[in-house]
Every structure is written in C-alpha cells, then in structure tokens.
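Lab notes, practical 5.
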Amino acid sequence: NNLVFNYLDYLLWLKHRDTPIVKAYEFTFRSSVEHYYPQHPLPGHDSLPAETLNSFGNLCLISHSKNSRLSNFMPEAKREYYRNNTIDSVKQYLMMESPQWDTSAISKHYDKMEEVLLSSLPDGTNSQNTQKAADA
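Output from the prediction step:
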C-alpha cells in the first residue's frame, strides 16, 4: 500500500532531515513501486529469487516516469542517475547509500525499515512513538 511507503518516508525524513539531500526532498505524488534491484536485469546480470526481489527491503515509491525510465537499470546505474536528479523517496536515498545492493543488503534494509515502522506504532510502552521512530 502506498500509504505505508509515504508514512515511512515521513518517519525517515524526521530522522534525516538535516542531511542535504533529504533537506531538499519534497513530498509529492508518487504512485509507482520501484524494485531497486530490477525485476528484469539487463543482460549479464543475475536475477534475484522472487522472495528477495519482491521484499519490502527492495521496494520504494517513485514517480511513474522515473520508474519507466530506470526500471531495468542496475542499482549502480540508478544511483548514478540520482547524482544529478532529486530523490523520489527518503527510503530510496537510504537504499542508494549501500555500496553493494544484494540479498544481504536487501535483508538488512528490510529489518531497519521494519524497525522504524514498528517503533512508530502505539504499543503501550512507547509514549512518543513518532519521535522514537525518527530517532531510531
């Protein structure tokens, strides 16, 4: 659900809003779920298992036009593209910070994003949920 991606981007923005790239980030309409490691890699690149490929750790929300333009590019090429363009998602920015985007990086990113989301939920032990998630 796009709401989850937008809410997560808000929580991540709270945490990273002093970072220059995130500071320039603007919340806009984005409706396309991007596989950072592509579903159909260019020739010469390995495919990932479906479970990893479709993991929340490998997904972010971007504009439809950028998703169409970059869909089969490898993470390194996507990172290079965004050096000269604004990010579409704070989650995406954090994904691009990983020097290597593979099964291990996807799993670690999933765990970090899950922790941010879960720590923001009211559970009776967390009185300042959104701020705690932002500080995570």
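Observations recorded by the TA: The helical segments are 2-16, 20-23, 50-53, 64-70, 75-82, 90-96, 103-119, 129-135. The radius of gyration is 15 Å.
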